[in-house]
Amino acid sequence: MTKQAVVVPVPPEAAVPAPQLFPYPPPRAAGVRRKQCLQMSGAGAPGRVGGWVESMRASSPTHARAAAALADDDGRRAAWMHPSALGKFEQVVAASKGKQIVVFLDYDGTLSPIVDDPDAAYMSDTMRRAVRSVAKHFPTAIVSGRCRDKVFEFVKLAELYYAGSHGMDIKGPAKAYRHTKAAKAKGVLFQPASQFLPMIEQVHESLVEKTKDIPGAKVENNKFCVSVHFRRVDEKSWSALADMVKSVLKDYPKLKLTQGRMVFEVRPTIKWDKGKALEFLLESLGFADCADVLPFYIGDDRTDEDAFKVLRKRGNGVGILVSKHPKDTSASYSLQEPAEVMEFLLRLVEWERLSKARPKW
Ligand SMILES: O=P(O)(O)OC[C@H]1O[C@H](O[C@H]2O[C@H](CO)[C@@H](O)[C@H](O)[C@H]2O)[C@H](O)[C@@H](O)[C@@H]1O
């Protein structure tokens, strides 16, 4: 395959931008307070350990269920916040008239169910078939916090675009989609954080060493970022684990700490995230500043919010949050779990097949 290696350094983050709302239907629920990602970087001081533990609790399924039980008392608000992308399917696809749909899919919790062991987060064969069908009709990308090779090992579809390490490692298929002649003809390869590789290696080693005595803690090397999992750590040790991670990162002001689903994510402080990856891929496909595209982004995690925000800012696109519980999100629709994601993808394929067969008046 012909590769085009583009390695572009991206400047460190200057500041965390204030959350902003965009006039994009349907509206977000009012009165839901936005939870900031916890930051530990040159730009922001770390919160108290108590703050971290609160945030760790918030990402645990037991606590999420308790929060949802409260929200259910106000069911009207929950329903309004996240209309189902399946229930509102016709409305979702109506916006695509005359436009090319491009599909972006997160992996963990979206295509595969969340499991205790990150190495065993397999995708079902039926889900793989659904994603393959989607990719036959629309340019399709997987956007994951995992390292690109690992997510490819799970998905195993060569025809897709892959953005691993939260979008910091992007590679396109050998035969790329081209909307315009200006679109990149050669395979895409983009690694904006390559200068951080040695640092990430060091931090990975230190984190493995430091956390080895905390039962259940697991450190995962995701190439341009590192995950520290606490799903299998006793809640009594969460604060000790948070302390350890923070103490390692003290010596690395160019790295920041964010949190996902029962996982700490150590990432370079560059202005690059899943949202930037989405924009980069649209541009590579030939859709830069283009109105005749409708991006769909489906994801379940806090890091997917960066992509949902980009869609809101563009005022064009469909953000779908995968969650059983009401959450503060910039997505416009929801699906409850990977099984519903699969149903939605199959429906999208069927709708496209039928609309091609339909006579154009
Ligand atoms: O962007 P994603 O594809 O959603 O990746 C985010 C993290 O996903 C994985 O961790 C999550 O899934 C695991 C398996 O189900 C689960 O055990 C863990 O608690 C979840 O946080 C992956 O292992 C991480 O490296 C990714 O950063």
UniProtKB/TrEMBL annotation:
Keywords: Hydrolase, Stress response. InterPro entries: HAD-like_sf, HAD-SF_hydro_IIB, HAD_sf, OTSB-like, Trehalose_PPase. Its cofactor is a divalent metal cation. It catalyses: alpha,alpha-trehalose 6-phosphate + H2O = alpha,alpha-trehalose + phosphate. CDD domains: HAD_TPP. Its EC number is 3.1.3.12. Gene3D superfamilies: HAD superfamily/HAD-like. GO terms for molecular function: trehalose-phosphatase activity. Pathway: Glycan biosynthesis; trehalose biosynthesis. It is an enzyme of class 3 (hydrolase). Removes the phosphate from trehalose 6-phosphate to produce free trehalose. Trehalose accumulation in plant may improve abiotic stress tolerance. Belongs to the trehalose phosphatase family. This is Trehalose 6-phosphate phosphatase. It comes from Urochloa decumbens. The lineage of its organism: Eukaryota, Viridiplantae, Streptophyta, Embryophyta, Tracheophyta.
